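SAMPLE LOG
Freezer: B-3
Tube label: C17
Construct: single chain, 372 aa
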Amino acid sequence: MENESKKEIMFDRMKKKKKEVKLVRRIVLVIVLFLLIVSGVGGYIAYSYVKSALEPVDPTSEAIVDVDIPIGSGLDTISATLEDNGIIKNAKIFKYYAKFNNESNFQAGQYSLTKAMTLDEIIESLKTGKVYREPLFSLTIPEGLTLEQIGQVIEKKTGQSADEFFALVTSDEFVDRMMVKYPNLLSAEIKAENVRYALEGYLYPATYPFFEESPSLEVIADTMIANTEKTVSAYYDLLQTEEKTVHWLLTFASLLEEEATAQTDRETIASVFYNRLDIDMPLQTDPTVLYALGSHKDRVLFEDLEVDNPYNTYQNLGLPPGPIANAGKSSIEAVLNPTDTDYFYFLADKKGENHFSETYEQHLQKIDEYLK
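STRUCTURE (predicted):
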C-alpha cells in the first residue's frame, strides 16, 4: 500500500510537471509571438517613417524658400538648417542619407529651394552652388504689363483662360486671402475708393519655373505676389524711414516703367516727377491717360487728356490712386535713388529716346526739334 501511495504521488507530480511545462511553453510561445508582432509593427512603423522622411515635404509646392548656408557649415548644421526651413522632414535622416551616399563638399551660399525638391535635388544644389531642378515649363512675365495683359500671357503659355485669371485676381475673396498671407505687402491702400484693381502692379515681372504640368491659376498668381514680397521687402526699412508705403512705391515705379526706355531714363524721369510733386505741378504722364481710358493708343490726343478719371495725371495732382502696370526692380530702385536734376519736362522722340528740359520754353524747342 505504501508503495502504491508513493507511486500515486510521483504520478501526480509528473502530471503537474507536464502541465507546468506545457504552460511555460504556451507562455514562451505567446511572448515570442508578441515580440514578433511588436517587432514587425515596430519595423513597419520605422520603415514607413524613414520612407516618408526620404520623400519631398510637399510635392505640389511652388513656393520659393530662401535658405542661407553659412561658410564653414558641416553636415549637421546644414541638415538642421534645411529642417528648420521646412525643406526636409528630418535632419538626421537627411544626414545619414548623405553619408551613406558619400555626398560631401557642400557649398555655402544663399539658396532658393522648394519643399517639392527631392533629397537628391537638394544635395545636388548644395554641391553645385545652384538650384538643381529642371522645371516642366517656365512662364515669363515682362515688365510693364497690366493684370489683363498678364492673363493673356498665361493663356498663351498654359492654355488656361485669361478671363478666368482676371476674374480670380480681381475677386474680393482672393484679394482678402492674399492680404492675410502678405500683410506687409498688401495694405488697406490697395482697396482705396479710386483704386481700379487691388492687385494691379503687385504681380512681379520675372521668369517663373514651374515643376508641375498644370499649376492652378491661383498657384501662378500667388507665386508672382510672393516674388513681389521678396523683392520689395528689401526696402521696407527705407520706406518706413521715409514715411512712405509699398503702395506709393509700386505706383510711382509703374509710371517709370511705362515711360522709360533705358535705365538712366528711369532715374532722370523719377527726378522730373519728384520736382513736379514738390511744387504741386501735375505729373502729366500719358500712360496714366491710357490707363484711365482702358485702351492702348499709339498717340494720345488732346481730347484724351480731358478724360474725367482719378488716374488721369493731367487732371489730378500727385500720383494716381494705384499702379498702372507691374514694375521691375530697376524702376523700383529708380524711385528710391533718383538723379538730382532741375528738370520739369521730358519728351520721347520718334526713336523712343527721351529728352529733358528745365523750362517750358526749352521743352517747346525740343518738341519742334524732335517731333515736328
